[in-house]
Amino acid sequence: MSAAAKPSTRPLAGIVLVDKPPGFTSNRILQKTKRLFQARKAGHTGTLDPMATGMLPICFGAATKVSGMMLESSKRYRVTAAFGIATDTGDATGTAIERSEQPPLAIADIEPAVQKMVGRIRQVPPMYSALKHEGTRLYELARQGKEVERPAREIEIYEFSIEAFDWPHLTLAVHCSKGTYVRTLVSDLAQQLGTVAHVAVLRRLTVAPFAESQMVSFGVLEEAAAEGLDSLDRWLLNADAALVDKPAISVSEADSEALRQGRRVSVLGADSEGSVRIYDPDGRFVGIGHLDGSGAVKPARIFPL
Questions:
Q1: CB 292 within 8 A of CB 273
Q2: How far apart are CA 74 and CA 156, in angstroms?
Q3: Less Cβ around it within 10 Å: N or C end of the chain?
Q4: Is the CB of residue 154 less than 8 Å from the CB of residue 125?
């Protein structure tokens, strides 16, 4: 019997902002979306916990070249904390490991502690995380009942504010730098208040520079796929949509070709330093370059035509 034919794939390039549903790993949604788009190559930027929902940028083909940059982006979340119970995972999927009999807190008690966490702070990553210790994922060690020392890391909280309060639940808006664990924020806040807590609900609203309104649910993508790939591809964003915070420059056709061959080129009036988006005379995205401060740009990430 002959082996079943593999589904056909295509050299797709672009970004889709999937609204991840609860109960799925980020990798599972990545694989489902990749098959839906019949993409040859795909990757996601920034893992969401299985219980979490919200923005999961998925990059196809050449757009995976910007995925590393998006890992550096700030994120916005809405999180609901449940006070009185701590779990081993820090969220509602875990097993209760500690309970607090503290009387209900008032919002006036909570607000100063919330504000105290805005700014640059140090945070110890949770055991249930994908970080590695001597080559092993921390969550794998945690499942074996092991705990290892984790060095604190500096993060930045740009916003941490109360949206709703109904004891024992507190809903917070979070705008934070890369590397922030919201579960740990909730745990640390509870500790300041003399109690314990876990994450009951978590939703990622944005990954900079994208807006919440640009997300699309997996159900909508499935409906679009049933109408054909053209309908599905309407949800694709160009790779340079992830780079709008970088200045743009235009180069000649000859210079764009030189950049594609890995050569640096001179740029009139460019005497600054830093990353830039590069476009050819027809407005096509060439890639990401680096201004070296001497009036030249050298290629960093070049995209195929």
A1: yes
A2: 9
A3: N
A4: no
What the block records as the tokens of 82 is 């449940």
Residue among 19, 49, 91, 255 flagged as catalytic:
49
91 is catalytic: no
- Whether 41 and 60 have beta carbons less than 8 Å apart is answered as yes
User: What string of pLDDT tens digits covers the 305 residues of the chain?
Assistant: 345 556 688 989 999 999 999 999 999 999 999 999 999 999 988 889 899 999 999 999 999 988 888 888 999 999 999 999 999 999 999 999 999 988 999 999 999 999 999 999 999 887 776 777 667 777 777 787 777 778 889 999 999 999 999 999 999 999 999 999 999 999 999 999 999 999 999 999 999 999 999 999 999 999 999 999 999 999 999 999 999 988 999 999 999 999 999 999 988 766 678 889 999 999 999 999 999 878 889 999 998 87
User: What's the Cα-to-Cα distance from 272 to each of 213, 269, 292, 293, rounded to whole Å?
Assistant: 34, 9, 7, 5
List of E strands, the chain: 14-20, 42-44, 53-60, 75-83, 85-87, 96-99, 119-123, 132-133, 136-137, 153-166, 169-176, 197-207, 216-217, 248-250, 265-266, 273-279, 285-292, 296-302
- In DSSP notation, 42-56 reads EEESS---TT-EEEE
CATH numbers and ranges of domains, the chain: 14-72+210-240 (3.30.2350.10), 75-207 (3.30.2350.10), 246-302 (2.30.130.10)
Do the bridges between strand 153-166 and strand 169-176 make them parallel or antiparallel, or are there none, so unpaired?
Answer: antiparallel
What does the block give as tokens for 181? 């664990």
Torsion of CA 232, 235, 237, 242, to 10 degrees: -130
